[in-house]
User: What shape does this take?
Amino acid sequence: MQVTIVTFPQTRVAAITHSGSPQQEHDTARKLIAWKIENRLLDPVRNRSYGLHYADHQGPDASKYRVDFCLSIGGPVAQNSHGIVEMIIPQLRCALARDVGSRTDNKAARYLYEHWLPASGERLSGHPLVFHYVNVGPNVAAHEAITDVYMPIV
Assistant: This one.
């Protein structure tokens, strides 16, 4: 798997936090999607979809599972009934790998943790993994899903 070192740019996002069972995360994501549609933020280039993953949903910390679902934005987030808030993803030095396939088993994230990081001499920065969901929507087949995985390092 190809890994490159990149600088993830500081990014203003609208976000909603999901904590708990990974099986319920789609209910949380649907709130962000509804807000996105309501606010007509439908350009996938300007309004990129992200997930900030704090723990592996299949790993030993699965009970602490948390993900912030995010959408890059150009303006402020007004108070709303969906629970969407404004956040900033800071500029981060990252190892970047691309995953193609089902988002339920992200091979790039696993590769970065299990193979690349131990051999790299790099250290984790303490920030969550940033998943950029390159293609999203009801017309994207699971095997065609593209996710760029940014592992923050120091």
